[in-house]
Amino acid sequence: MGKISLGINMEFVRHDDKPFEWGVEKAAALGYSYVEPMVHWGRELLSEAGYFHSVSMLDDPYRVKRACEKAGIKLSGLSSHTPLGRPEIGTEYLKQAVRFAAECGAPVVNTDEGPKAPWTTEEEDFVLMKYTLREVAAVAEPRKVLLGLEPHQQYSKNPAGLDRIWQLVSSPVIGINFDTGNSYLCGHDPYRWLERVKDRLVHLHAKDISDSQSSAERGKVTGTAVGCACGEGVIDWARVIQICRSCPRDIVLSVECGTVAQAESSIGHLRRLL
């Protein structure tokens, strides 16, 4: 039976215009046990100036490790989304993310298939995704870093499509990073879908969807960046927790919301259920 812990994706501080270290300290102060940083390649103006939370993978991975150790918080994974179907972008990015994760101590690297190139066919896209996943798995396997595939884009917007991507490469390090909000907005039953993937689950994005967003977007989009506070939307968190308790591995519920206030409300709601 899986142990469930509470973490938070760093997107909760996006609108505060603060650096990575500030966000880590804030997550710890709110009571979260885990944090999920976002990483990028190269250099980015707002991050370098201290106005954005994303960390460059050109930085020392120990920057992340030391910040978490100082705050007394652990890493659930890295948010490292990149288009699997565009290997000129995704392959080297994810290989670097895996190496970065191994050194800073993050057990999971999360991604999805990303927006496809406009000129490729579906058949070609799956060949390209297989290439990327095979290359990344070869780097991840010896480092024992897991890869979490998330339902978010054109092919993973339904259970069969996500399974098809997962089945492209047979590797013990490739699993599922389930997103409750994305799966709901795609028009599917998130609980049945979570039951379907629970034996492959390596990480979970705890994303709630407000009634207004549900009415406006359900069945029309494949996902959303962040949700509302957990407990203030349509997702039944008691049911999600019940399913996760039957997973074969320990799972971190990494809250994906847009503000510090929503993060505080989310942990209060989820703690009561746990």
What do you see in this structure?
- The chain is of the alpha/beta class and 274 residues long.
- It has a single domain (4-273), classed as TIM Barrel, CATH 3.20.20.150.
- It is 43% helix and 17% strand.
- The strands form 2 sheets. A 9-stranded parallel β-sheet has the order 5-2-1-11-10-9-8-7-6.
- Helix 1 (20-30) links the parallel strand 1 and strand 2 (34-36).
- Helix 1 runs parallel beside helix 3, helix 3 packs across helix 4 (87-104) and helix 4 (87-104) packs parallel to helix 5.
- The mean pLDDT is 98.
Short description:
By secondary structure, this protein is α/β, with parallel strands linked by helices. It is built from eleven helices and eleven strands.
User: What is the general shape?
Assistant: globular
N-to-C SSE series?
EHEEHEHEEHEHEHEHHEHHEH
Distance between the termini: 14 Å
Q: Mean pLDDT, as a whole number? A: 98
* Fraction of residues in helix: 40-55%
Spatial strand order of the main sheet: 5-2-1-11-10-9-8-7-6
Named at the architecture level, the CATH assignment is Alpha-Beta Barrel
Largest beta sheet, briefly?
9 strands, parallel
Strand share of the residues? 15-25%
**Gyration radius, rounded:** 17 Å
Task: State the domain count.
Answer: 1
**Poorly predicted tracts of residues:** none
Tally of contiguous helical segments: 11
> Total strand count, please?
11
CATH topology: TIM Barrel
Structural class: alpha/beta
Instruction: Give me the CATH superfamily.
Output: Divalent-metal-dependent TIM barrel enzymes
CATH class: Alpha Beta
